[in-house]
Every structure is written in structure tokens, then in C-alpha cells.
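Incident log, structure service

09:12 report received: a user says their structure output differs between two submissions of the same chain.
09:20 pulled the input from the user's history:
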Amino acid sequence: MLRKIWKNSILRTILEFIGIAAGAVIAAFAIEEFLVPCTILDGGVVGIGIMVSSLTKIPLGLLTVVLNVPFLLIGSRKMGKLFIAKSAFGMAVFSAFLQLFAPMKDVTDEYLLAVCFGGVLLGVGVGLVIRCGGCLDGTETVAIMLNKRFKLPVGRIVLAFNIVIFVVAGFLFGFDRAMYSLLTYFITSKVLDIIENGIDQAKAAMIITEDAKEISEQIYKRLGRTVTLMEGEGLVSGKKIVLYCVLTRFEIHELREIIDKADSSAFIAISDVSEIIGTHMKKTIALEKDD
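09:34 re-ran on a clean worker, output below:
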């Protein structure tokens, strides 16, 4: 029954937006009630917002919207429309609840408790948003674009952004705050590992289908990933085509959408890739359009 409900694309999209909203609320609570009172920074745009808000008293919710808009505009031409719509929705909910939680009494002013519980809740919230196909931070959008263009790992790009932010925070608020912020980031990343099975780990997708041409072309067109095609034969189902491709965790959701539209009966197995050896060159191919 649950499988049939999930295969309904409209209902599934609604449930994903609900999940994004829930994740955004949890993340906003973690930041406003645990991190901000102790001047502990999150990474990315939110971390920049916390620094600017602390120095200028501009509301963090407003800064989050303003700072994220340029990243969404940059990503609107390169990323899928649904991804941008989900991200914009998640950022809007996130910013609104930052404003809502701001006047509430802080949960704790103990730094260690703020780092631990704030980091865990933030990881749960952000992980839920990513699992539902969106993101709360514009730097992730840029990281995904750089990954597609230069093959740089998404997690390392985000980490590089955040290290710069934490160093700046160290000069502004003291390096003890920068170290607390870095510790919070690693706790958040570990929770993301639990929810998404790896913040920086590549994924291998093996797809068994009868419509290999359409799926492989859409994977190349929408994700920029080439696909290896192999012939296979099922004990009961007969001859099949097996597709194999390597992608990032951010692209798994869109891969599911591609397969659902092309061949909803396809069998998919997704596994972790511990290491990739060799340079994979992407060749430009002409995709035929169906008449």
C-alpha cells in the first residue's frame, strides 16, 4: 500500500514538500535556540548570516533570504526546476521560523550542550531536507554545480567554504567560537552520514530496465553522467539491460524521478563507492529526440 502511494508522483511531491518544511523547522530551531545564543556558527550562507546579524543586529531570517537569493538565481539555469522550487520553499520556511524562534527563550547557554544538541538537531533537519530533494544553503547549490563541471567532490567544496567562514569568525568573535563552530559542523556532518549514508561519498547506481535508451539519455542530459550498458538475463523476466553509473548523493533523488517517468517497473540498486580510481572523461553525444 505504501509503495503504491509513493509511486503517485503528485502525492509523493506533496509529502516531500512536507518533509522539507519539517526539516527546515528543525534546523531553524537548532540554530536560534542552541547555536546563535552562544555565538556558534553554522557553515555556508547561514554562518555568514549569523556573523552579519551579530555585528549589525539585522534579523537572521531576513539575511538568510537575501543571501540565498543570488545562489538560487545562479542555480536556476543549471539545476532542475523541481530542485530549485524545493530549495526556495525550504529556505522560505527556514527563514520564517528563524524569525519565529528568535524571541523565544534560549534552551541553554552551556557551550558544550549547545554544540552537541544543536549539531545533532541541525544534522537531522538538513538531512531531512536533502533526503526530500532540496537544500537550505545556497553554497550547496554552487557546490553541486562545481561538481558537475569540474568533478570536485561536493562535500569537500562545502568544507572549504566553511573553513574560510570559521577562520573569519575566529578573528571576529575569538578562536574558541571558531573551534566550537567547527566541532558543531563535524557533529552535523556525522548525523548527515547516518541519514544519508555519507556526505561526500559517491554512489553507484545499477538499474535493470527494459527502457535503457530513454533512461541513459535522460541521465546524461539532466545529470551530466555517462552510463555503462550491459546485457543481462533474469531467471523469470528474461533479457534485460543493466545500466551502471556513478553519481553524488545529491543526484540520487533526481535519478529516481528520471526512472519513475521512463520505466517505473525498473529495479534499482544504489551502493556506496569507497574510492574512484582513474579519470572519467565525459564525451558530448547527440541525443535523439523522439518524434
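09:41 both user submissions now match this output. Likely a transient worker issue. Closing.
09:42 reviewer note: The first strand starts at residue 202 and ends at 209. The chain is about 65% helix and 10% strand.
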